[in-house]
Amino acid sequence: MPLNDKLRNFCKATQRLGFNSAWSDTCCIDKATSSILNQSLTSMYKWYADSAATIVFLAGIAHPSKLGNLICSLWMIRAWTLQELLAPKVIVFYDSEWQPFLGNTSANHKESWKIMQELADAVKIPHGTIVRFSPDDLGIRKKLRLTSSHNTSVEDVAYALIGIFKSDIRPHYGEGADALGHLLEEIVARSGEVTVLAWSGKSSSHNSCLPASVSVYSQTPYNPPSWKGKRWKRASRKYVAS
């Protein structure tokens, strides 16, 4: 869909919801000015959280939409999807014809059990967490897992997690994969959460103790068995449990 048509339909949808003004990340961020771009990256989560409503246009979902379409859409593998889904209190999905997803004409699709359960099954977090999310609701490892399958640049993934982790890092768009290293370092330093360091795969060029990609967090970290209450015997210079 041409950009002008998308923005025109976005404004019409905004009016139908009863609002007179709107903001679109497609055209309302001056990407040519680094200071404005970097400020936008750190503010994005708050903007979504404070919005009266968030409109999501699903260009790849044909009309009429059906259950199952949402989790198969390209929107689900974008890095920025997570904050667009979790931060707003009100969200409305539209298909490729700018018709409400599943024909649901309510003013808030977070009140639709069917739609939210489809998303909860896809991202593997509780239904209620999606509807009423707070950055404190999920553990650090689980937050990292949420973006582990997103098909986008490592840099975008890192910046999309800033608000979800309440991070204080200052983005420098164009730093590439180092952005993830900066984020993970800040998380470990602030929280002391060492499970961030439990991973296997390619290491970061920024810090060899950290991964080059969040995809490693799709794995469940190894938890060694507890030896509490075990009796130890020494045999041939090796210790064995019995």
Describe the structure.
The protein has 242 residues and is mainly α. It has helices at 3-16, 34-50, 81-86, 113-123, 127-131, 140-146, 154-160, 178-191, and strands spanning 54-57, 91-94, 232-235, 238-241. The strands form 2 sheets. It has a two-stranded parallel sheet with strand order 1-2. Helix 7 (154-160) packs parallel to helix 8. The termini are far apart. Mean pLDDT is 87; it is low at 235-242.
Poorly predicted spans = 235-242
Strand order of the largest sheet: 1-2
Percent helix, as a range, is 25-40%
Q: What is the count of β-strands?
A: 4
End-to-end Cα distance, whole Å, is 67 Å
**Net shape:** globular
Q: What share of residues are in beta strands?
A: 5-15%
Specify the structural class.
mainly alpha
What does the largest sheet look like?
2 strands, parallel
Q: Rounded to an integer, what's the Rg over CA atoms?
A: 21 Å
Order of helices and strands: HHEHEHHHHHEE
Q: What is the mean pLDDT?
A: 87
If helices are DSSP runs of H or I spanning 4 or more residues, what is the number of helices? 8
